[in-house]
Here is the input.
Amino acid sequence: MGCGKSSVAKLLEQRGYRRLDSDDIVRVDLLCRPEVVAAVRGRFGEGVLEDEGRLHRGRLAARVFADEVERQWLENLVHPLLYAVWRERLAAEPGSKWVFEVPLLFEKALENWFDFIVCVTTTPAQQYARLEARGITREQAEARISKQLPLARKAELSDYVIGNEGAPEFLARQVDLLVGRLEAEGSLRRRSGA
Here is the structure.
């Protein structure tokens, strides 16, 4: 969160990959589905709704990041729907090269879905500055980041690591190096157990 996975995914998209943003699917599709809105309203009440009856993501986030049981409940509701969307998109374009943005990949043991994993890192100061620029307070950011595996551990578990501490041009050069390496390695190597 705030490290630059979307920036890297967009750069990969510019280099011929099909991009799938899991957060965007949840935000634009899943949290708007009537059955999801009804389930969330039934669980949390009218206070998580906007005047128009849509979910107010900020209020919902405040509730679920303050209570582990509630966060797990929401993830158990939404994640199976997300995985179904993944399957649909992959089935629709089976020959495409894909890049998936997955915020909780290791936390949800999703490694075997993918041929390789890229972790994007940055400094804590830059991470919090980016999140604050998006309107997320430091307290909100800390609450969300605390639910994730430490960044250093994610980097250890990943196949490739891209550092996002410098200028955009430096990030683009790293992505170019990654694409070159993937092409040299045959691009798609299956992870064990996949």
